[in-house]
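General statements about sequence and structure are easier to judge against a single worked case. No coordinates are needed to read the tokens, only the vocabulary itself. The sequence in question and its structure tokens are set out directly beneath this paragraph.
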Amino acid sequence: MADPLYIPEEITVHLGAPSDSSASNVRVPFADYIKNVASSEIYPTWPESAIRANIYAQISFALNRIVTEHYRSQGYNFDITNSTQYDQSFVYGRDIFENISQIVDDIFNSYIVKDNSVIPLFARYCSGTTSTCPGGLSQWGSVSLANDGFTPYRILNSYYGDVSLVENAPVANVEESYPEQPLRIGDYGDNVKRIQVSLNRISKNYPAIPKIAFPDGLFDKPTEDAVKAFQKIFNLTQDGIVGRATWYKIVAVLNGIKRLSELDAEAVPMSYINSQFSGVLQEGNRAGGVSLLQYYLSFVAEFNDFIPQVEIDGYFGPATTRAVTAFQQSVGLPQTGIVDEATWNALYSSFITKYNALPEDLKTAPAAPFPGEFLTLGSSGPAVSLLQQYLNVISQTYPAIPTVTENGVFDEQTLEAVQAYEREFGLPVRGVVTVTVWNSITELYTDLTEGEKKAFGQNPGYNVSENEQG
């Protein structure tokens, strides 16, 4: 995954639907892309608070596509499309409104995050008149709020809930994450370590993948075994080499696991899972069963690239119709886009087959959310103790980060460890734990700790000798 803490200098836009191979790609400066989108999506005569709120959403939407490598992980060679069916409106070569240009220049390197995520929010939005999107921003609704005196931040919170703004993020030449050549036995370095950490995290949900006991950046035989097991599960050539297809499948599966791990809290409780058909569902419905349907579709889509991902928003819109139709085609049912009893039963059967192969607990054991204030030299208390605990876990895999005494005091030793972390992961080296630094640390901590957990009977990644316990 591209570093979520940098704003890219440029973005590659596909001028058509994702599957339209005849459409061309254009590479434009990121700020110019946002100016174009804003000039295409909103009116320059709107109140400035509404314009800024909408631009924050547009920036975050685009950055989420880049950071998660949404399209590149599917084999495409672009970051985003200009098809409003999937992404934001971008009219190549159009004129830009002057006031919008000035606002974008001011805030193009700021974006929205939510909860304990370091990744820019996938900030869905719609007109609010000709189309609606539950859980997303209403463009015309934001105008009304601005006229009522709402600030941009209040407008965003009104639609997305408790969100934060990351401001003045550094700008860099962010390239696609795939290294220049395939990774194989004997290779070493940060890219290998990234694959090892990712596979260990994935293996929590796919126990057939053996653990890599020492994710130290050396591509050894246990790493090859884990890669082959991953390739077997996801129908890739089982050569143990991390080429482009395997690399991006790992990226996509890891993103999917994190997304599925959040579903319990955000959309569908696990206790809600059931096989009972409760009635026909079709485009336009907002019934309770729609969220469950979308959950099943999202889950099954992780195993079947033919089925497009769908947002779990409780509304049966065109995207859900496309996903249902693709599923029906994949199992040989009439392609109506309507969920009748036969479609529901087939979808549930497909879901439960995959679901039962996973550990029951799909949820990530999250690290603590940002404590609400910056941590710096001289700080003390439970939040500092947690920070020290997280840093010590990370240091076991990243030895450039020194271990610290877990005493709850942000002392010189802790300062050095924080600065080493910032240096290791390309953050500004300030020794101050901001929201961005905290979320970066806790996300990596979660990946490492979840990656260490072994399912019953899972290959631990090392030889087990006589009389060994545990």
Observations:
- Residues 262-272, 358-366 have pLDDT under 50 and may be disordered.
- The chain has four domains: 7-172, 190-259, 267-355, 382-452.
- Strands lie at 7-8, 10-14, 25-29, 80-81, 111-114, 125-126, 137-138, 163-166, 171-172.
- The chain is about 45% helix and 5% strand.
